[in-house]
Structure formats: C-alpha cells, structure tokens
User: Fold this.
Amino acid sequence: MSIVVANKGNAALQQKVFRYCSFWTDPTTWGGEFAPMEMESVYVPKGLNLYVDVDRTDMLNAIIVEGSIIFAPHTDPNH
Assistant:
C-alpha cells in the first residue's frame, strides 16, 4: 500500500497509521457553525476522529463519544 504525495510520488506507509480527523477549530466540523458553546453537548459519532486543537473549551454539558477524540500535544510538560 502506498500514499501518493503531490509532486513527491509514492510514499510507503512503513507500518504507520493515518487517521482522517476533523479539527475542533474548523467550522466545517460543526456544520459551518461555531464550535460548541457553554453548556452545549457534543456527539462524536462512530467513524469520526475529532482532533481537539485548543487548550480550553467552554464548560460543556456532555460529550458522547462513539468515534474518537484526540488531544493535541502541549509543549509545556506541566500542562
């Protein structure tokens, strides 16, 4: 199996795992609207990988996860 990279040809997967993710900060993740606001609920359906690329969100009512949530690494080791 290989991945075609524009102007680079084929790149071998070499046992790497790739996931398509929807970014928290991308309005298309939320149907072109704003990210969830205070006391709203978030549903992550099966098959969706939600990449939380922010340090903080508003206080949410609930997060229901059937897919996956991935948190961005933070450069501060005390975070």
Strands lie at 2-5, 9-12, 22-23, 41-44, 49-52, 62-65, 68-71. The two ends are 38 Å apart (CA to CA). Residues 38 and 59 are 5 Å apart (CA to CA).
